[in-house]
Amino acid sequence: MTEQPQTEETLFIFKELEANPNTTQRDLSARLNISLGKTNYLLRELILRGFIKVKNFTGNPGKLRKIHYLLTEKGLEEKFKLLQHFLQIKEIEYNKLKQEIEKIGKPGDVSIFPRV
Q: Fewer CB within 10 Å: C terminus or N terminus of the chain?
């Protein structure tokens, strides 16, 4: 598998599966607002990378299979890395906005509005 860029979708999947391990792909798809096929693809990739472990609970052959998605230790480490990555991005965005506001001036500051 090629190196996948860090995505908010991956972080969201980690958070959702940690909170609700028996969620379905259909639920994840709806919450992420992406196709079921893409959700399936992302989950398979995360499983292949060893970030998620799948447990099948099938008691009776006639019943629907219940699947639980569990984050592995490697998955928890990746989730932490993703959180750090996105926090750094948000901090950079915050600092840029703060600088822009300082350049413009504070609201109500008459010096930014020339008198006519």
A: C
CB 70 within 8 A of CB 17: yes
Provide the H-helix boundaries in 33-110. Answer: 36-48, 73-104
Q: What stretch of H or E contains 15?
A: helix 8-19
Q: Which CATH number fits domain 8-103: 3.50.30.20, 1.10.10.10, 3.30.450.30, 3.40.50.720?
A: 1.10.10.10
Contact 54, 47 (CB under 8 A): yes
Residue pair 73/80 in contact (Cβ under 8 Å)? The answer is: no
Burial class, 73, CB count within 10 angstroms (exposed 0-12 / middle 13-18 / buried 19+): exposed
Question: pTM for this structure?
Answer: 0.68
Mean pLDDT, all residues of the chain: 82
